[in-house]
Amino acid sequence: METTLASSNDWRAQQQAHFRRRALDNLTIVLFLAPAFVLFLVFVIYPILQSVYYSLFNWKGFGPAVDFVGLNNYVGILSDQIFLKAVKNGLLIVALSLTLQLPLSLALALMVGRDLPGRTFFRTIFFMPYVFSEVITAIMWQSLYNPDPERGLINALLVLIPGVKAQAWLGDPNMVMACIFVVLTWKYFGLHMLLYMAGLQNIPAEIEEAARIDGADRRQLLTYITLPLLGGTIRTTVYLSAIGSLQQFILIWIMTKGGPVNASEVMATYMYRFGFVRFWLGYGCAVAIVMFLICLIFSLVFQRMARQPDYLGSI
Amino acid sequence: MATTYSHPSSTWRKNLPRFWQYLILSLFVLLIFMPIVIAIFGALKTRGEMYSRPYTPPIPPHWENYARILSQESFWIMLRNSLLVMLGATTGVVLACSLAAFVFARLEFRGKSLAFNLLTLGLMFPIYVAILPVYLVLRQMGLLNNLWGIIVVQVAFQLSGNILILRGFFMAIPAELQDAAYIDGCTAFGFFWRILLPLARPALSAVAALTMVASWNDLLVPLVVIDKDILWTLPLGTMQFQGQYGMDLNMVSAFVTLSAVPAVLFYIFAERQIVSGLTAGALKG
Fold first, then answer.
1. Does some domain include residue B5?
2. CB distance B129–A291 less than 8 Å?
3. Residues 6 or more apart in contact with residue A291 via CB below 8 angstroms
4. Scanning every residue of chain B, which has its alpha carbon at the shortest distance from the alpha carbon of A193?
5. A14 and A139 share a domain?
6. Looking at residues A65-69, what average pLDDT do you find?
7. Helix (H, G, I), strand (E, B) or coil at A57
8. Which tops the pLDDT comparison, A181 or A210?
9. Do A27 and A116 fall into the same domain?
10. Model ipTM?
11. Is residue B29 part of a domain?
């Protein structure tokens, strides 16, 4: 009798301790999640929802939004040639990044490889532009692109070649996107190279060794062993590069303001022009929503398409 | 196979490609340095020299441009503003993200996966998409022309990625450690504070380093939040300086190179943290 009483008291005490711990844990959960959630809801989710609302109004930012126009802003955006040009330019940067910038980064990462003496030195140098702000990058390159060969280094070097004339570079509507892409590559190829180098580091040397013993030559080694095993990293860089390309703003805004004659307009410069320069806030909100939908669709399509076997994970 | 090691021509065959490798890599090193070196050359010239021969080495160097900028109070104010924002944003990100990442990595509760998915949704809302909506909210809250306005937005848009990174690190810490701590009477908070955080110091410093770089270089948020020159951050000031002194290219070069110094110094000291943060974020995320 006594023993059971004692043990049941014991049990009750344990139970109480358990509840106390449970309550304490719940308190911890709420308190710990609160800062992140409050910030996230107030400054990320709420603004987006609110701008869905404003995008339905013709609103210049003063007083309440009352001039309801339905989907007119969206119709206006999607039928504006300049916006379509901006989307096209964004896709052009994506295409150039995927076909030129990433292969270049990959080639350099493979060249440095695992054991080239001085590999950390090269990585440090190539990655350095990443930590320069976009403002600094834009201003430095602007002076290199100066159309006057007396001023801009690139033209000065160019006119040394007989028969070649100085180019307007950023002032030439046909050339401005290519010039911007060169700057983007200068700033970001080091990031991708860094990721590839980390990916290469994760491939066990024994696998390549085994293939070599089996008589694979360098090309076979690359196409059948190294690249497939690097698949996960390549997918990640493709994603980062494409999403990053769609979001370019500061570099372009400082170097060209989207000009000449909208030749280098991208979605973000378009949004900034309407939202912050002309202060058509309703229209600007609609642009933001369209941009968001484009990024979202891209992410979803990418995730669906890129779901491929992870070879490295299965080793 | 074995002959390749002893064959006399093997060093040739091995070293020739190596020569090309170094040649190509060195070429890229030159390309990386070219804009930076030209900017430094320009900064060390007088205005007259800048016009007559803009990209030759500055002989003799003129340090007046730097002296002039450093003697202006506005440069130091910008530096202070940038530092304040960077410290605020980094503290906020490290605090909010480590707390939330701990809950997601180590504690169980109803609706956990829903909450986690909601937070990581932020990866789909890059700041460039959301800047106009965010501006409107800041205006309603009276946070325009306020350094806090920059800080809260920078923190809010860094949450998702960094929670993901830290959660990965926290989950890698063995569960036995948590059980042992609980048996010894440790609360969840005690475990987090006394065991997890000290163990996760490399991850925390990686997150901090990444946030510092992002915050320090950010122009978009200060651009829309601030229009009083007393509150300009360094990137914003650099942009305005270019607009104001556009004709004085030597001064612009001096200002640009000077404002790059903190970033380069930081890179030299924190390269390891930045690199590990980026690779962890990209390869796990």
1. no
2. yes
3. A246, A267, A268, A271, B128, B129
4. B279
5. no
6. 83
7. strand
8. A181
9. no
10. 0.86
11. yes
Same structural domain, A155 and A27: no
Cα A298 to the chain's mean position, in Å?
A: 12
Structural contact between residues A289 and A51, judged by C-beta atoms closer than 8 angstroms? yes
Tally the domains of chain A: 2
* Overall size of chain B counted in residues: 285
User: Do residues A134 and A185 both lie within one domain?
Assistant: yes
Going by C-beta distance under 8 Å and a sequence separation of 6 or more, which residues neighbour residue A156? A149, A150, B55
H/E stretch holding B19 reads helix B10-43
In this structure, what token pair is assigned to residue A271? 């949004």
| A30 and A150 co-located in one domain | no
What residues have CB less than 8 Å from A72, skipping those under 6 apart?
A58
In angstroms, the CA B121 to CA B20 distance is 46
Q: Do A40 and A182 belong to one domain?
A: no
Chain A residues touching B188 at Cβ < 8 A? 24-25, 28
Give the one of B107, B163, B274 whose C-beta lies nearest to A25's C-beta. Answer: B107
Closest partner residue to A40 among B99, B119, B213, by Cβ? B119
Q: Enter the DSSP assignment of B56.
A: S
Which two three-digit tokens encode residue B6? Answer: 């002893």
Let me know the angle formed at the C-alpha of A16 by A10 and A20, rounded to the nearest 5 degrees. Answer: 145
**Under 8 Å between Cβ of B137 and A46:** yes
Residue A69 lies in a domain: no
Identify the CATH number of the domain in which residue A214 sits. Answer: 1.10.3720.10
Residue B68 placed within a domain: no
Residues of B in contact with A134 (CB under 8 A): 217, 219, 235
Residue B252 near residue A150, CB atoms below 8 Å: no
- Domains in chain B, number: 2
Q: A125-141 pLDDT, tens per residue?
A: 999 999 899 999 999 99
Residue B184's domain comprises: 73-284
Q: What is the pLDDT of residue B11?
A: 57
Residue B100's CATH number: 1.10.3720.10
Residue B276 covered by a domain: yes
Residue B208 shares a structural domain with residue B231: yes
Angle between the A176-202 and A102-112 helix axes, to the nearest 10 degrees? 40
Q: What's the helix, strand, coil split of chain A in %, to 5?
A: 75, 0, 25
User: Which residue matches tokens 């609360």?
Assistant: B187
For B84-128, the pLDDT digits (tens) are 999 999 999 999 999 999 999 988 888 888 999 888 877 777 788
For residue A43, the enclosing domain spans 1-48
